[in-house]
Amino acid sequence: RQVGYAVIGLGELTLEELLPAWAVGKRSRLAAVVSDDHDKALRAARAYGLTEADAYSYDTFEELQSRPDVQAVYIVLPNSLHREYTERAARIGKHVLCEKPLAGSVEDAGAMVAACRDAGVKLMTAYRCQYTPLHWRARDLVQGGDLGSVKLIHSVNVQVEPADGQWRLKRELAGGGSLLDVGLYCLNTIRFLLGTEPTSLWAQTHSTPGDPRFGEVEESVTWVMTFPGGVTAQCSCSYGAAHTRTLDVYGSEGRLQLDPAFDYTNLNLRVHTPEAITEHRLKETDQFALEIDHFSACIQEGREPFTPGEEGLQDQRLMDAIYRSARTGQPVTLDAVPGTDAFR
Ligand code: NAD
Predict the structure, then answer these.
(1) Distance 33 CA to ligand 1 centre (A)
(2) 41 C-alpha to ligand 1 centroid (Å)
(3) What DSSP line would sit under 114-177, residue for residue?
(4) Among 96, 160, 297, 332, which residue's CB has the most CB atoms within a 10 Å radius?
(5) Would you please indicate which residues are annotated as catalytic (active-site) residues?
(6) Which residue has the least CA distance to atom 13 on ligand 1?
Protein backbone atom coordinates (compact mmCIF):
# COMPACT_ATOMS: atom_id res chain seq x y z
CA ARG A 1 0.00 0.00 0.00
CA GLN A 2 1.12 3.52 -0.82
CA VAL A 3 0.83 6.58 1.44
CA GLY A 4 -1.46 9.21 -0.11
CA TYR A 5 -0.38 12.86 -0.14
CA ALA A 6 -2.07 16.21 -0.63
CA VAL A 7 0.37 18.81 -1.96
CA ILE A 8 -0.25 22.41 -0.86
CA GLY A 9 1.11 25.11 -3.18
CA LEU A 10 1.42 24.64 -6.94
CA GLY A 11 4.47 26.82 -7.60
CA GLU A 12 7.63 26.08 -9.50
CA LEU A 13 8.99 23.37 -7.23
CA THR A 14 5.72 21.43 -7.13
CA LEU A 15 5.00 21.64 -10.86
CA GLU A 16 8.54 21.00 -12.08
CA GLU A 17 9.88 18.50 -9.54
CA LEU A 18 7.39 17.12 -7.04
CA LEU A 19 4.44 16.10 -9.19
CA PRO A 20 6.74 14.01 -11.42
CA ALA A 21 8.49 12.60 -8.31
CA TRP A 22 5.30 10.95 -7.03
CA ALA A 23 5.16 8.97 -10.24
CA VAL A 24 8.65 7.61 -9.49
CA GLY A 25 8.18 6.92 -5.76
CA LYS A 26 7.31 3.36 -4.74
CA ARG A 27 5.62 3.88 -1.38
CA SER A 28 3.89 7.18 -2.13
CA ARG A 29 1.08 8.46 -4.32
CA LEU A 30 -0.38 11.86 -5.07
CA ALA A 31 -4.00 11.92 -3.85
CA ALA A 32 -4.99 15.61 -3.83
CA VAL A 33 -3.77 19.10 -4.74
CA VAL A 34 -4.45 22.32 -2.82
CA SER A 35 -4.15 25.78 -4.39
CA ASP A 36 -5.86 29.18 -4.39
CA ASP A 37 -5.91 29.01 -8.21
CA HIS A 38 -8.74 26.60 -9.05
CA ASP A 39 -7.91 26.31 -12.75
CA LYS A 40 -4.28 25.52 -11.97
CA ALA A 41 -5.38 22.95 -9.38
CA LEU A 42 -7.70 21.28 -11.91
CA ARG A 43 -5.01 21.20 -14.59
CA ALA A 44 -2.48 19.68 -12.19
CA ALA A 45 -4.99 17.15 -10.88
CA ARG A 46 -5.97 15.97 -14.35
CA ALA A 47 -2.38 15.86 -15.59
CA TYR A 48 -1.52 13.43 -12.80
CA GLY A 49 -4.54 11.13 -12.96
CA LEU A 50 -6.72 12.80 -10.32
CA THR A 51 -10.24 14.20 -10.68
CA GLU A 52 -11.97 17.50 -9.92
CA ALA A 53 -12.93 16.08 -6.51
CA ASP A 54 -9.21 15.88 -5.65
CA ALA A 55 -8.62 19.62 -6.21
CA TYR A 56 -8.98 21.68 -3.01
CA SER A 57 -8.56 25.37 -2.21
CA TYR A 58 -6.90 26.91 0.86
CA ASP A 59 -10.43 27.47 2.23
CA THR A 60 -11.58 23.88 1.73
CA PHE A 61 -8.30 22.37 3.01
CA GLU A 62 -9.97 21.03 6.18
CA GLU A 63 -12.26 18.84 4.04
CA LEU A 64 -9.24 16.58 3.62
CA GLN A 65 -10.05 15.34 7.11
CA SER A 66 -12.71 13.08 5.61
CA ARG A 67 -10.21 11.57 3.15
CA PRO A 68 -8.63 8.51 4.81
CA ASP A 69 -6.64 7.93 1.61
CA VAL A 70 -4.77 11.20 2.34
CA GLN A 71 -2.44 10.41 5.24
CA ALA A 72 0.07 13.21 4.70
CA VAL A 73 0.40 16.72 3.32
CA TYR A 74 3.45 18.20 1.61
CA ILE A 75 3.71 21.95 2.23
CA VAL A 76 5.36 23.85 -0.63
CA LEU A 77 4.42 27.46 0.13
CA PRO A 78 6.44 30.62 0.91
CA ASN A 79 8.40 30.05 4.14
CA SER A 80 6.27 32.13 6.48
CA LEU A 81 3.12 30.20 5.52
CA HIS A 82 4.58 26.84 6.55
CA ARG A 83 3.46 27.29 10.17
CA GLU A 84 -0.21 27.99 9.43
CA TYR A 85 -0.59 24.97 7.15
CA THR A 86 1.38 22.67 9.45
CA GLU A 87 -0.89 23.60 12.35
CA ARG A 88 -4.01 23.17 10.20
CA ALA A 89 -2.80 19.79 8.93
CA ALA A 90 -1.96 18.61 12.46
CA ARG A 91 -5.46 19.61 13.63
CA ILE A 92 -7.05 17.33 11.02
CA GLY A 93 -4.68 14.47 11.85
CA LYS A 94 -2.42 14.52 8.78
CA HIS A 95 1.35 13.90 8.88
CA VAL A 96 3.39 16.83 7.53
CA LEU A 97 6.29 16.90 5.11
CA CYS A 98 7.37 20.56 4.96
CA GLU A 99 9.71 22.27 2.51
CA LYS A 100 12.89 23.95 3.71
CA PRO A 101 13.47 26.18 5.56
CA LEU A 102 11.07 24.69 8.12
CA ALA A 103 9.65 28.18 8.78
CA GLY A 104 10.29 31.89 8.53
CA SER A 105 11.44 32.14 12.17
CA VAL A 106 12.64 30.10 15.15
CA GLU A 107 9.38 30.82 16.92
CA ASP A 108 7.29 29.46 14.04
CA ALA A 109 9.51 26.39 13.67
CA GLY A 110 9.17 25.63 17.39
CA ALA A 111 5.39 26.01 17.20
CA MET A 112 5.26 23.58 14.26
CA VAL A 113 7.25 20.94 16.13
CA ALA A 114 4.97 21.36 19.17
CA ALA A 115 1.75 21.27 17.10
CA CYS A 116 2.69 17.98 15.42
CA ARG A 117 3.93 16.42 18.66
CA ASP A 118 0.70 17.38 20.48
CA ALA A 119 -1.47 16.07 17.62
CA GLY A 120 0.49 12.80 17.41
CA VAL A 121 1.43 13.30 13.76
CA LYS A 122 4.89 13.18 12.20
CA LEU A 123 6.73 16.26 10.94
CA MET A 124 9.63 15.97 8.51
CA THR A 125 11.82 18.76 7.13
CA ALA A 126 12.24 18.23 3.39
CA TYR A 127 16.04 18.13 3.22
CA ARG A 128 16.29 16.23 -0.08
CA CYS A 129 20.12 16.15 -0.07
CA GLN A 130 20.08 14.01 3.06
CA TYR A 131 18.31 11.26 1.13
CA THR A 132 20.67 11.02 -1.84
CA PRO A 133 23.14 8.12 -2.04
CA LEU A 134 25.98 10.44 -3.12
CA HIS A 135 25.63 12.63 -0.01
CA TRP A 136 25.60 9.48 2.11
CA ARG A 137 28.78 8.30 0.34
CA ALA A 138 30.37 11.67 1.15
CA ARG A 139 29.30 11.32 4.79
CA ASP A 140 30.75 7.79 4.98
CA LEU A 141 34.07 9.02 3.54
CA VAL A 142 34.25 11.95 6.00
CA GLN A 143 33.18 9.98 9.07
CA GLY A 144 35.04 6.82 8.03
CA GLY A 145 38.41 8.60 8.11
CA ASP A 146 39.15 8.38 4.37
CA LEU A 147 40.31 12.02 4.41
CA GLY A 148 42.33 11.57 7.61
CA SER A 149 41.49 14.15 10.22
CA VAL A 150 39.13 16.84 8.90
CA LYS A 151 40.51 20.38 9.25
CA LEU A 152 38.62 22.75 6.98
CA ILE A 153 35.34 22.90 5.08
CA HIS A 154 34.38 25.48 2.48
CA SER A 155 30.88 25.68 1.04
CA VAL A 156 29.24 28.13 -1.36
CA ASN A 157 25.62 28.35 -2.54
CA VAL A 158 24.88 31.38 -4.71
CA GLN A 159 22.36 32.33 -7.40
CA VAL A 160 21.05 35.49 -9.02
CA GLU A 161 17.57 36.29 -7.75
CA PRO A 162 15.58 38.30 -10.32
CA ALA A 163 13.81 41.52 -9.27
CA ASP A 164 10.34 40.31 -10.24
CA GLY A 165 8.64 41.09 -6.97
CA GLN A 166 8.43 37.46 -5.88
CA TRP A 167 8.00 36.46 -2.23
CA ARG A 168 11.68 35.54 -1.71
CA LEU A 169 12.55 39.25 -1.60
CA LYS A 170 9.79 40.07 0.91
CA ARG A 171 10.73 39.66 4.57
CA GLU A 172 7.20 38.96 5.72
CA LEU A 173 6.90 35.91 3.45
CA ALA A 174 10.51 34.72 3.29
CA GLY A 175 11.66 35.40 6.87
CA GLY A 176 15.15 36.27 5.57
CA GLY A 177 17.22 36.44 2.40
CA SER A 178 19.83 34.21 0.80
CA LEU A 179 20.71 32.57 4.14
CA LEU A 180 17.29 30.97 4.73
CA ASP A 181 16.88 30.03 1.08
CA VAL A 182 20.26 28.80 -0.15
CA GLY A 183 22.80 29.26 2.67
CA LEU A 184 20.80 26.70 4.62
CA TYR A 185 22.14 23.97 2.30
CA CYS A 186 25.74 24.72 3.33
CA LEU A 187 24.75 24.72 6.99
CA ASN A 188 22.71 21.53 7.15
CA THR A 189 24.96 19.56 4.80
CA ILE A 190 28.04 20.32 6.90
CA ARG A 191 26.19 19.24 10.07
CA PHE A 192 25.08 16.09 8.20
CA LEU A 193 28.59 15.26 6.96
CA LEU A 194 30.27 15.77 10.32
CA GLY A 195 27.45 14.46 12.50
CA THR A 196 28.29 17.10 15.14
CA GLU A 197 27.05 20.55 16.11
CA PRO A 198 29.03 23.80 15.83
CA THR A 199 30.37 25.25 19.07
CA SER A 200 30.78 28.85 17.90
CA LEU A 201 30.21 31.01 14.85
CA TRP A 202 30.92 34.41 13.42
CA ALA A 203 29.12 36.07 10.48
CA GLN A 204 28.71 39.11 8.30
CA THR A 205 26.09 40.12 5.76
CA HIS A 206 26.28 42.43 2.78
CA SER A 207 23.69 43.96 0.42
CA THR A 208 24.61 46.17 -2.54
CA PRO A 209 23.58 49.69 -1.54
CA GLY A 210 20.68 50.97 -3.64
CA ASP A 211 19.83 47.57 -5.18
CA PRO A 212 16.02 47.49 -4.96
CA ARG A 213 16.02 43.70 -4.55
CA PHE A 214 17.64 43.96 -1.15
CA GLY A 215 15.54 46.54 0.65
CA GLU A 216 13.95 43.90 2.90
CA VAL A 217 16.24 40.85 2.82
CA GLU A 218 20.01 40.42 2.69
CA GLU A 219 21.91 39.71 -0.51
CA SER A 220 24.96 37.84 0.81
CA VAL A 221 26.09 36.17 4.02
CA THR A 222 29.50 34.76 4.94
CA TRP A 223 29.95 32.87 8.15
CA VAL A 224 32.53 30.74 9.91
CA MET A 225 31.66 27.87 12.26
CA THR A 226 33.89 25.93 14.64
CA PHE A 227 33.09 22.28 15.28
CA PRO A 228 34.43 19.87 17.93
CA GLY A 229 37.85 18.48 17.09
CA GLY A 230 39.02 21.77 15.61
CA VAL A 231 37.13 21.65 12.30
CA THR A 232 36.57 25.13 10.86
CA ALA A 233 33.84 25.60 8.24
CA GLN A 234 33.54 28.70 6.11
CA CYS A 235 30.31 29.25 4.15
CA SER A 236 29.00 31.88 1.76
CA CYS A 237 25.62 32.39 0.15
CA SER A 238 24.27 35.11 -2.09
CA TYR A 239 21.36 36.21 -4.23
CA GLY A 240 23.73 38.27 -6.40
CA ALA A 241 26.27 35.82 -7.85
CA ALA A 242 25.94 33.37 -10.73
CA HIS A 243 24.71 29.85 -9.87
CA THR A 244 27.43 27.92 -8.00
CA ARG A 245 26.91 25.19 -5.42
CA THR A 246 30.04 23.65 -3.97
CA LEU A 247 31.30 21.94 -0.85
CA ASP A 248 34.92 21.00 -0.14
CA VAL A 249 36.23 19.09 2.87
CA TYR A 250 39.99 19.29 3.55
CA GLY A 251 41.53 16.54 5.68
CA SER A 252 45.06 15.57 6.69
CA GLU A 253 45.12 12.87 3.98
CA GLY A 254 42.95 14.26 1.22
CA ARG A 255 40.23 16.53 -0.03
CA LEU A 256 36.62 15.71 -0.82
CA GLN A 257 34.91 17.85 -3.43
CA LEU A 258 31.16 18.04 -4.16
CA ASP A 259 30.64 20.19 -7.27
CA PRO A 260 27.83 20.70 -7.88
CA ALA A 261 26.92 19.89 -4.30
CA PHE A 262 23.22 20.73 -4.07
CA ASP A 263 21.72 20.53 -7.58
CA TYR A 264 18.76 18.27 -8.36
CA THR A 265 20.82 16.15 -10.79
CA ASN A 266 24.38 15.49 -12.00
CA LEU A 267 25.98 15.79 -8.57
CA ASN A 268 29.73 15.19 -8.66
CA LEU A 269 31.82 13.68 -5.87
CA ARG A 270 35.60 13.50 -6.13
CA VAL A 271 38.27 12.62 -3.60
CA HIS A 272 41.75 14.04 -4.17
CA THR A 273 44.73 12.48 -2.38
CA PRO A 274 48.43 13.04 -3.13
CA GLU A 275 48.32 9.72 -5.08
CA ALA A 276 45.07 9.90 -7.05
CA ILE A 277 41.79 11.55 -7.89
CA THR A 278 38.83 9.19 -7.38
CA GLU A 279 35.46 9.94 -8.96
CA HIS A 280 32.51 8.46 -7.07
CA ARG A 281 29.70 7.80 -9.51
CA LEU A 282 26.43 6.33 -8.24
CA LYS A 283 23.21 5.65 -10.06
CA GLU A 284 21.06 8.78 -9.77
CA THR A 285 17.51 8.43 -8.51
CA ASP A 286 15.03 11.30 -8.27
CA GLN A 287 16.02 13.05 -5.02
CA PHE A 288 12.47 14.14 -4.25
CA ALA A 289 11.10 10.63 -4.77
CA LEU A 290 13.69 9.25 -2.31
CA GLU A 291 12.79 11.94 0.22
CA ILE A 292 9.01 11.41 -0.10
CA ASP A 293 9.37 7.63 0.04
CA HIS A 294 11.44 7.94 3.22
CA PHE A 295 8.58 9.84 4.89
CA SER A 296 6.07 7.25 3.66
CA ALA A 297 8.20 4.44 5.11
CA CYS A 298 8.31 6.27 8.46
CA ILE A 299 4.50 6.62 8.43
CA GLN A 300 3.98 2.98 7.48
CA GLU A 301 6.52 1.62 9.96
CA GLY A 302 5.86 4.06 12.82
CA ARG A 303 9.39 5.47 12.98
CA GLU A 304 10.87 8.95 13.09
CA PRO A 305 12.18 10.54 9.86
CA PHE A 306 15.94 11.10 9.51
CA THR A 307 15.27 14.85 9.22
CA PRO A 308 12.39 15.45 11.65
CA GLY A 309 10.97 18.89 12.48
CA GLU A 310 13.56 19.21 15.27
CA GLU A 311 16.32 19.10 12.66
CA GLY A 312 14.78 22.02 10.76
CA LEU A 313 14.29 23.85 14.07
CA GLN A 314 17.97 23.39 14.97
CA ASP A 315 19.04 24.94 11.65
CA GLN A 316 16.61 27.77 12.22
CA ARG A 317 18.25 28.46 15.62
CA LEU A 318 21.70 28.40 14.02
CA MET A 319 20.60 30.79 11.25
CA ASP A 320 19.19 33.06 13.94
CA ALA A 321 22.62 33.00 15.64
CA ILE A 322 24.28 33.78 12.27
CA TYR A 323 22.06 36.86 11.86
CA ARG A 324 22.74 37.86 15.48
CA SER A 325 26.50 37.68 14.96
CA ALA A 326 26.25 39.74 11.75
CA ARG A 327 24.11 42.34 13.54
CA THR A 328 26.33 42.69 16.58
CA GLY A 329 29.69 42.09 14.92
CA GLN A 330 30.42 39.60 17.72
CA PRO A 331 31.06 35.86 17.61
CA VAL A 332 28.32 33.69 19.12
CA THR A 333 29.21 30.81 21.40
CA LEU A 334 26.87 27.88 20.94
CA ASP A 335 26.02 25.48 23.69
CA ALA A 336 25.61 22.77 21.12
CA VAL A 337 22.77 20.67 22.43
CA PRO A 338 20.39 19.96 19.55
CA GLY A 339 16.78 20.54 20.42
CA THR A 340 17.41 23.00 23.22
CA ASP A 341 17.42 26.75 23.47
CA ALA A 342 20.60 26.67 25.54
CA PHE A 343 22.68 28.77 23.18
CA ARG A 344 20.13 31.49 22.66
P1 NAD B 1 6.94 29.54 -5.92
O2 NAD B 1 6.89 31.02 -5.80
O3 NAD B 1 7.26 28.95 -7.25
O4 NAD B 1 5.54 28.92 -5.44
C5 NAD B 1 4.91 29.32 -4.25
C6 NAD B 1 3.47 28.84 -4.23
O7 NAD B 1 2.85 29.38 -3.06
C8 NAD B 1 2.66 29.31 -5.44
O9 NAD B 1 1.83 28.25 -5.84
C10 NAD B 1 1.81 30.46 -4.89
O11 NAD B 1 0.58 30.59 -5.53
C12 NAD B 1 1.61 29.99 -3.44
N13 NAD B 1 1.29 31.07 -2.51
C14 NAD B 1 0.32 31.03 -1.57
N15 NAD B 1 0.26 32.16 -0.87
C16 NAD B 1 1.19 32.96 -1.39
C17 NAD B 1 1.59 34.28 -1.08
N18 NAD B 1 1.01 34.99 -0.09
N19 NAD B 1 2.60 34.80 -1.82
C20 NAD B 1 3.20 34.08 -2.78
N21 NAD B 1 2.86 32.82 -3.12
C22 NAD B 1 1.87 32.27 -2.42
O23 NAD B 1 7.94 29.01 -4.80
P24 NAD B 1 8.73 27.64 -4.77
O25 NAD B 1 10.05 27.83 -5.42
O26 NAD B 1 7.86 26.54 -5.22
O27 NAD B 1 9.02 27.52 -3.20
C28 NAD B 1 8.06 27.06 -2.27
C29 NAD B 1 8.78 26.44 -1.05
O30 NAD B 1 9.61 25.39 -1.51
C31 NAD B 1 9.68 27.41 -0.30
O32 NAD B 1 9.63 27.14 1.08
C33 NAD B 1 11.07 27.10 -0.84
O34 NAD B 1 12.13 27.39 0.06
C35 NAD B 1 10.96 25.61 -1.09
N36 NAD B 1 11.87 25.14 -2.16
C37 NAD B 1 12.63 24.03 -1.93
C38 NAD B 1 13.48 23.54 -2.92
C39 NAD B 1 14.26 22.28 -2.67
O40 NAD B 1 15.16 21.97 -3.45
N41 NAD B 1 13.94 21.53 -1.63
C42 NAD B 1 13.55 24.20 -4.15
C43 NAD B 1 12.75 25.32 -4.37
C44 NAD B 1 11.91 25.78 -3.37
Answers:
(1) 14
(2) 15
(3) HHHHHHT--EEEE-GGGG-HHHHHHHHHHHTTTTSSEEEEEEEEEEEPP-S--GGG-HHHHSSS
(4) 96
(5) 100, 185
(6) 77
- Look at ligand 1, atom 7, and give the residue with the nearest C-alpha: 77
Residue pair 231/194 in contact by the 8 Å Cβ criterion? yes
**Ligand 1 interacting residues, C-beta cut-off 6 A:** 9-14, 76-79, 81, 99-100, 126, 128, 166-167, 173, 181
Residue 234, helix vs strand vs coil: strand
**Is the full-model pTM beyond 0.95?**
yes
Pairing of strands 231-238, 220-227: antiparallel
Q: What is the pLDDT of residues 167-186, one digit of tens each?
A: 999 999 999 999 999 999 99
Contact call for residues 127 and 188 (beta carbons, < 8 A)? yes
Atom of ligand 1 nearest to the CA of 58: 14
Nearest-atom number in ligand 1 for the CA of 9 is 9
Asked whether residue 104 carries a pLDDT value surpassing 60, the answer given is yes
Other CB atoms within 10 Å distance of the CB of residue 273 = 14
Secondary structure letter of residue 17 according to DSSP: I
Ligand 1 centre from 169 Cα, in Å? 12
Pocket test for ligand 1, best of 77, 108, 112 (most atoms within 8 A of CB): 77
Of 130, 77, 80, residue with least CA distance to 99: 77
Q: Which residues contact 288 (CB under 8 A, 6 or more apart)?
A: 17, 18, 21, 128, 264
76 CA distance to ligand 1 middle (Å): 5
The reply to whether ipTM tops 0.95 is yes
